Amino acid sequence: MVMQTWTPFSDIVSLREAMDRLVEQSVVHPRRGAGAPSLAGAKLMPIDLFEEDSGYVLRAYVPGVKAEDVEIGAESETVTIKAHIPGEAEKEGAGAYRWLVGELGYGDVVRTVTLPAAIDAGKIEASVENGVLAVIVPKAEEAKPRKIAVMAK
Fold it and tell me: Most CB contacts within 10 A, which of 20, 30, 83, 127?
């Protein structure tokens, strides 16, 4: 069994992120670009995040994005991903289309994730494959679990 440090503010951060997602998905955005309708959740970058003993694995959905078009920043316990998802509505001449449905999100997306422990920002690795960004975020040495030997007296 692994013991984890609980901080009272970690739930508040999660609540804030949940509220941000709720507002982003609920608000109807005006038409943008060359007259194409936009998806209300287009600014939301869906992620998967899980913890391993050595660190965290974050996967983000970034369709059509090239590795050189992704920006990742990290400090302390926070990782920020920025990217631009290309869309048909951004192409020259897209205003002449008679749009019937425009549900594929496009445009600038950003996602900031606050992790429960300090990270080693200098050792973060990232790659893009088939529209999925994989970010390996190692924990700082002081945040990694340690096994403590118990001495008998």
Answer: 83
- Tell me the C-alpha distance between 20 and 105, whole Å: 17
pLDDT of 53 over the 60 cut: yes
User: Where do the domains of the chain lie, and which CATH numbers do they carry?
Assistant: 10-141 (2.60.40.790)
pTM exceeding the 0.70 threshold for the entire prediction: no
Structure tokens at 96: 């002449």
Contact 102, 90 (CB under 8 A): no
Q: What is the DSSP track for the chain?
A: -------TTHHHHHHHHHHHHHHHHHSPPPPBTTTB---TTTT---EEEEE-SSEEEEEEE-TT--GGGEEEEEETTEEEEEEEE--GGGSTTGGGS--S---S--EEEEEEEE-SS-B-GGG-EEEEETTEEEEEEEBPGGGS----PPPP-
Each residue of 84-141: pLDDT tens digit? Answer: 988 877 777 777 778 788 777 788 888 999 999 889 999 999 999 999 999 999 998 8
Residues in the chain: 153
Which residues have a Cβ under 8 Å from the Cβ of 25 and sit 6 or more positions away?
40, 41, 44
